[in-house]
């Protein structure tokens, strides 16, 4: 498979799976009834933010796959992707902000590990994960705040 096709496959797969997880775990009335911190973003922001992040994650994944599909970096990429896709079912599906927090903390660690491992060998892949790390750090604070407030 050539480089362009690999990038396209990764981007489509990540966006499609992320969208599917989102559609299967819609926040609904339960989430609306929760106390949220003053810095909670408007609901309309999450879709465009995650779509953009998923494209960046897909590109970083494709680059890592092309560099070494059995590398530790690729394994970390798959671990963070699994944790990412697990968060919505934990938080929204099971209606458990605490379980969401239990999932998002190792997710953030895996994202930071990916950046750290990628930095010396593929700075572009590392930089592609920086907005993701910032968003998930913010989401971790938001998740923690919801746990504390509720």
Automatic annotation (TrEMBL):
Subcellular location: Membrane
Segments passing through the bilayer: 7-24, 44-62, 98-115, 127-149
Topological type in the membrane: Multi-pass membrane protein
Pfam families in UniProt: TspO_MBR
Listed GO biological process terms: tetrapyrrole metabolic process
The entry's keywords: Membrane, Transmembrane, Transmembrane helix
InterPro entries: TspO/MBR-related_sf, TspO_MBR
GO CC annotations, alphabetized: membrane
Family: Belongs to the TspO/BZRP family.
Protein name: Tryptophan-rich sensory protein
Organism: Rhizobium deserti
Lineage of origin: Bacteria, Pseudomonadati, Pseudomonadota, Alphaproteobacteria, Hyphomicrobiales
């Amino acid at each position: 498979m050539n480089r362009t096709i690999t990038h396209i496959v990764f981007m489509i797969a990540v966006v499609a799976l992320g969208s599917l997880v989102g559609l299967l775990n819609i926040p609904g009335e339960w989430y609306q009834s929760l106390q949220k911190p003053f810095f909670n973003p408007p609901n309309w922001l999450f879709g465009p933010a995650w779509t953009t992040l998923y494209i960046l994650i897909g590109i970083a994944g494709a680059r890592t796959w092309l560099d070494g599909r059995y590398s530790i970096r690729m394994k970390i990429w798959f671990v963070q992707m699994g944790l990412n896709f697990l968060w919505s079912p934990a938080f929204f599906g099971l209606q458990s902000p605490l379980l969401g927090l239990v999932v998002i903390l190792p997710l953030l660690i895996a994202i930071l590990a990916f950046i750290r491992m990628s930095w010396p060998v593929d700075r572009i892949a590392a930089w592609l994960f920086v907005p993701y790390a910032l968003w998930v750090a913010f989401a971790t604070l938001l998740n923690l705040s919801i746990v504390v407030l509720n």
